[in-house]
Amino acid sequence: MSRNTKQKTIVLEALHKLNHPTALEVYEYSKQVCPQISLGTVYRILGNFALDEKILHIKIANNPDHYDYQTHGHYHFSCKKCLNVYDIDIPYMENLNKPHKECFIEDHSILFNGLCADCYQKEGK
Amino acid sequence: MSRNTKQKTIVLEALHKLNHPTALEVYEYSKQVCPQISLGTVYRILGNFALDEKILHIKIANNPDHYDYQTHGHYHFSCKKCLNVYDIDIPYMENLNKPHKECFIEDHSILFNGLCADCYQKEGK
DNA sequence: ACCTTATTGATAATAATTACTAATAAGAAT
DNA sequence: ATTCTTATTAGTAATTATTATCAATAAGGT
Q1: pLDDT tens digits along A11-55
Q2: How far apart are CA B123 and CA B40, in angstroms?
Q3: Which of A33, A106, A110, B13 has a CB 3.0–4.6 Å from the CB of A75, allowing a cystine?
Q4: Min Cα–Cα distance to chain A from B120, Å
């Protein structure tokens, strides 16, 4: 059976404290509390949590993978400048998951692209 | 100015002949016509075409990047078993791109997940 | 045919992630 | 509490996907 370790606890804490962090960001955060933690451990824990659907694994073009402690249906926005990921509050469209032609749809994800407010401002324009 | 090469031609042909291929699939196809072509060349050509928005670069979780010669707004389905990518004919929702709170949305992509008909059948259930 | 330089092939380098393995430590059994 | 079993970890090596480097090649204008 699964065991509770301080590594798992701190990784979960990182996901709550940070905003859709990457594995590396989780690692940096975790090291502050648990200096001996290794990046491989972070990847393994994140991978297992995602398998168990305890967390969400977000994959984005030109951006390392991000993770989210929120697993319920919601969509994301990714800033093409700073590469941060944010929740976007557009209601989940359950109806999009209805069976479709040849495909047996189980789920869908929507990723919005553009500039976040900060980067838009810095961009000058 | 840009030059026409047989490598560019064959890569574009691969995109039309194959169904949302990966860079490696484009490479395998291209080698049959142009045996000396290198994988780096394929990546470079695909990358440049994508930059020029001549083709679409599709990134999917647990799946190498795929490419599409169709660039107009449409959505994709990815089979979690065979990892193939298909167009899905749900109309593009232009209205989702309207400005949203703090984010300056330029575009969005929807990726549907599930099993394709073939894999669903093989799965037995 | 010549010249300029965009493009290529080959290879090395990098980034992100996964696999391996001996050592460690949860937590159940004694 | 101590022992025992084995899930988990740290550290490292390996792998996968992709990008960068650079001398050699070849478009295509002159």
Answers
A1: 999 999 999 999 999 999 999 999 999 999 999 999 999 999 999
A2: 36
A3: A110
A4: 8
- Taking the C-alpha atoms of residue A41 and residue A32, their distance in angstroms, rounded to an integer, is 15
Question: Tens of pLDDT along B57-112?
Answer: 988 766 788 999 999 999 999 988 888 999 998 999 999 998 787 789 999 999 99
Residues B37 and B30: beta-carbon distance below 8 Å: yes
The CA distances from residue B104 to A109, A113, A114, B52, in Å, are 19, 8, 5, 22
Domain segments of chain B: what residues? 6-67, 72-122
Nucleotide closest in space to A4 (CA vs C1'): C26
Which member of A62, A89, A106 has the closest CB to residue B114?
A: A106
Residue in this structure with the two tokens 């209205």, named with its chain if needed: B95
User: Spelled out in words, what is the top-level CATH class assigned to the domain B72-122?
Assistant: alpha beta
* Nucleic chain C contacts, protein chain A, residues 7-66, CB cut-off 7 A: 22-24, 39-40, 43, 47, 64-65
Question: Using the beta-carbon criterion (under 8 Å), do B90 and A112 form an inter-chain contact?
Answer: no
What is the rounded CA–CA span in Å between residue B125 and residue A69?
A: 31
CATH class for the domain made up of B6-67:
mainly alpha
Tokens linked to A10: 């701190």
Q: Which of residues 33-62 of B touch strand D (CB under 7 A)?
A: 39-40, 43, 47
Output the pTM of the full model: 0.86
